[in-house]
Design a protein that fits this description.
Elements (H helix, E strand, L loop, with lengths): L7 H30 L2 H30 L6 H6 L6 H6 L5 H22 L6 H22 L18 H4 L7 H24 L6 H31 L10 H26 L3 H23 L15 H21 L1 H4 L11 H33 L7 H21 L10 H24 L5 H31 L4 H11 L1 H25 L2 E8 L3 E4 L2 E13 L2 E12 L2 E6 L2 E5 L7 E3 L1 E4 L4 E6 L9 E8 L3 H19 L4 H10 L1
Antiparallel strand pairs: 1-10, 2-3, 3-4, 4-5, 4-6, 6-7, 8-9, 9-10
Bound molecules: protoporphyrin IX containing FE (HEM).
Protoporphyrin IX containing FE binds next to helix 9, helix 10, helix 14, helix 15 and helix 19.
């Protein structure tokens, strides 16, 4: 019998989404009216509505989580993507494991950022229109949730059990983290876009909008970068091929806004200091936002096949339409204000801080264009000729490696250059030290067997960057030490505390150097072998002995695992026990998921994956053994980069603030 009380969660969820949609429409209309008429009451009403949207979307999220945690299969999304035997964290993460739920998460974050902005952003001329733009974005996401990708459809006859989320997604806790970071990044980057639009609408294209949004931009950019690396780590620890980046279309589209945002966080400094690049900065932030939408269209429209694609959803045309609308409106506004935003001054010299930023921007954009082209090309060819073509890793590597080396080279010299024009003598002296460091490191690396071009160049450029960081630090500390009666450590701490932005950027660039070494080692010298190990015996692998001790079969509610127990020995000493396995989730009828086990060390890893059937009647195990030198440095470098980004964002200490106020 049909029991309406069973459907209450679905109705509650739909009701919350519809309420949020109504409030978002209200916030756009009333906010725009208030902003156009400079009516403070209407503006305040729109701000309250923005907070209301967040509460309504939070209610929708709470409803979805309740449905997932209580296995309420009367909600279609739960019935199609959850299973009662999943552990609690998997049930929570199932909310973003499929299309409708992930849009709900995105819409919730967008509502959260908007509410925060409505509550904490200074009450200036830009805020009203920035909120209108944020709320217009809210209208889009919430209406997609309400109309085409509704996670709250009620089922009249609920099934007794669901199939569970995609097994690949249940296999690693990173699944609970990676999408959250990516969405926090996307949504964070919407804020500078909204302020840029507001600056164009209100005819205030100075640097006010960028200064106002620096924190939001760096937070969004930081989350997006962290999300990318978290995705790489997930891929490495789950997909079983021993790699973290495959130039998969989904990986590619999410790196595009990160590249343009990296260009943006640098080029804004030129506008702040030299009042140049107004149009360029507006263009970059529009591109960044438009690329997040285009990327989502490519992933969600079912036009590509990928391990991470959420295929065949009905939302493709909506995202394409929104991308076209956003592009038309924002580029149209930019064109309308062209006279106010175009630069009237030229660069004094290319060999200057702003010159290095500009060149760096060109390299970041060239990489964006190449990755976009490589990703879209197969789609375009298929659309025109009907033929399937693929653009593989060799293309992406060939175009991106030289650009990446160029970025590393500029990252070393840029921060040492003064604004306007570099003095030739100090430039020569700095370059001599840096190139000397590069030569020594390159020669040492060559002697130790690094003979491949890109890894060798990366090692040399990393040393060049380390020397540059040393020069930057000594340039800042030596004059202070001369004037101070305090010891070097005190002076260093004082400098690091007072010059947070500068010192933070040094930490960030150091993180990039560490990541670059990790990429060079793991990409250039990866060893991948298939090994047949008889139980009780050992096989050699890259200086280690792998000793197969046992096989095992485990069954927990919702999961069956079969794997091997392998001891890792080196020079006669026991190092670790690894347990690579294959997991089958659900009732045993889903695709088996490889689950490698990894031993990380500072120099390399030992990555083992079961590469053949594990049968009780068999006295051997087939393993895929991979070693990627320096891979752990990618994760460590990312932590350094994240720490440095947070450090640049710390508020200036009191003493410095007072000095700035006094100077003003
Ligand atoms: C800041 C140059 C590449 C992340 C800076 C600064 C300079 C600079 C001069 C300002 C330092 C100061 O305040 O004194 C460059 C150049 C690059 C480059 C020329 C190569 C083209 C990168 C890369 C990343 C990065 C690849 C990260 C992946 C940052 C961050 C800041 C920064 C987060 C702080 C921004 C802020 O405080 O607003 N960079 N950099 N940079 N850089 Fe880079």
């Amino acid at each position: 019998m049909f029991d309406p009380t069973q459907l209450s969660l679905a109705y509650l969820g739909s009701g919350s989404v519809l309420l949020a949609l109504g409030l978002a429409l209200y916030a756009v209309l009333v906010g725009a009216l208030g902003a156009a008429r400079h009516d403070a009451r209407l503006q305040t009403s729109a701000r309250y509505a923005a907070v209301g949207i967040f509460f309504a979307m939070t209610a929708a999220v709470v409803v979805m989580q309740t449905a997932l945690l209580t296995d309420d299969f009367s909600v279609k999304y739960v019935a199609e993507h959850s299973i009662s035997t999943s552990p609690t964290w998997v049930k929570v993460a199932t909310m973003w494991a499929a299309l409708e739920g992930s849009i709900l998460l995105w819409a919730w974050f967008a509502a959260g950022y908007t509410a925060l902005l409505a509550l904490v952003a200074p009450n200036d001329a830009l805020r009203p229109w920035a909120l209108v733009v944020m709320n217009a974005v809210n209208v889009f996401f919430i209406s997609v949730n309400g109309l085409v990708a509704n996670p709250f459809i009620a089922l009249a006859t609920p099934p007794l059990e669901g199939p569970g989320p995609n097994p690949l997604l249940q296999n690693h806790w990173m699944m609970a983290v990676h999408p959250i970071l990516i969405y926090l990044g996307y949504v964070g980057l919407t804020v500078p876009f909204a302020y840029a639009m507001s600056a164009l609408i209100t005819k205030r294209p100075g640097s006010e909008w960028m200064t106002q949004t620096r924190t939001w931009t760096l937070v969004g950019w930081g989350f997006l970068g962290l999300g990318k690396v978290a995705g790489g780590w997930w891929s490495y620890e789950v997909l079983g091929w021993g790699g973290y980046w495959a130039w998969d279309p989904v990986e590619n589209v999410s790196i595009l806004p990160w590249l343009t945002a990296t260009a943006f966080i640098h080029s804004v400094q030129v506008q702040e200091r030299r009042r140049m690049l107004k149009a360029w900065n507006l263009l970059l932030i529009i591109l960044t936002f438009a690329l997040t939408i285009l990327g989502t269209f490519i992933i969600r429209a079912g036009v590509i096949s990928s391990v991470h694609a959420f295929g065949d959803g009905p939302v493709g045309p909506y995202f394409l339409g929104f991308f076209l609308l956003v592009s038309a409106v924002s580029f149209g506004l930019l064109a309308l204000r062209w006279d106010q935003v175009r630069d009237r001054a030229d660069l004094d010299s290319v060999v200057s801080r702003e010159g290095s930023f500009l060149l760096g921007n060109v390299l970041f954009l060239a990489m964006t264009f190449a990755v976009l082209l490589g990703t879209l090309f197969p789609l375009l060819v298929e659309a025109v000729t009907g033929e399937k073509v693929t653009v593989g890793a060799p293309f992406f590597n060939q175009v991106s490696f030289p650009l990446w080396l160029g970025i590393l080279a500029l990252m070393g010299i840029g921060p040492l250059l003064p604004w306007r024009k570099a003095e030739e003598q100090s430039l020569r002296r700095n370059l001599a030290w840096m190139l000397g460091g590069a030569l020594v490191a390159g020669a040492l690396a060559y002697l130790f067997g690094v003979r491949k071009f890109y890894p060798l160049m990366t090692v040399a450029l990393c040393a060049y960057n380390l020397v540059s960081l040393g020069l930057l630090l000594s340039g800042a500390l030596v004059p202070r030490l001369r004037l101070s009666s305090q010891g070097p450590l005190r002076v260093f701490v004082q400098y690091a505390t007072e010059s947070r932005r500068r010192f933070g950027s040094m930490i960030v660039h150091f993180g990039v150097v560490v990541i670059a070494l990790g990429i060079a080692g793991s990409g250039g010298y990866r060893v991948d072998q298939q090994l047949r190990v008889t139980l009780g015996e050992s096989v050699p692998f890259q200086g280690y002995e792998l000793r197969a001790i046992d096989r095992f079969m485990e069954q927990t509610p919702g999961r069956i695992s079969a794997g091997a127990v392998v001891e890792v020995w080196r020079d006669g000493r026991f190092v670790a026990t690894l347990r690579p396995r294959v997991n089958v989730f659900g009732g045993g009828d889903t695709q088996p998921v490889p689950t490698p086990d990894v031993l990380y060390t500072a120099w390399h890893d030992v990555y083992l994956n079961v590469a053949g059937p594990v049968r009780p009647d068999q006295d051997f195990i087939v393993l895929r053994a991979v070693q990627s030198p320096l891979i752990a440095w990618i994760w460590i470098g990312t932590a350094i980069l994240a720490f440095g980004t947070a450090y640049t964002l710390l508020p200036a200490p009191r003493r410095q603030k007072r000095r700035v106020t006094a100077a003003a």
